[in-house]
Request: fold
Amino acid sequence: MSPSRIFSSSGLLIVAFLIQESLVTRINFPISGFSFYIAVLIGLISFEDRSGAVVIGFIGGIILDLSPTIDAPFGQWAFVMTLIGFLFATNRESIGNFSSRPMALIALVAAGAMFSMVIFLMISALLGENDGAFSQIVIKVLGNGFWTIIFAPLIIPFLSLFHNASLTSRERR
Reply:
């Protein structure tokens, strides 16, 4: 992954973070909330190669740790997203190319968003955080997965264009 792609992807993640914090958190979604930022981050991770997925996961997690609305230890989201990036990177060959299967990519982004929230909540429980009742947590995770499936078809084409535009000629091979 080239340094210019790291900076451009970081810039996109910062813009997505600002959209999440200024607009999306103000909307009262039925069932539960929607994390636009996590959907964008998981989408970017899914397009990256092995090293790029881990790097984008770590940078995206650090940016998410800067959120004033998250009451968690600094670095927890960085760890979770680095782990998600690693899981995507190690299973990249078995996942395959999504150009002919866009619904599989949407399902993978939604599953990745839900799995990242579950890992975050498990680590929070290990650290002694109180995140609410189990039923509330299940509704929050499933609601976020539902809204990610609904909005991912709007996000994924833009991320695909961004990824293709950010590739260097050497990376396009």
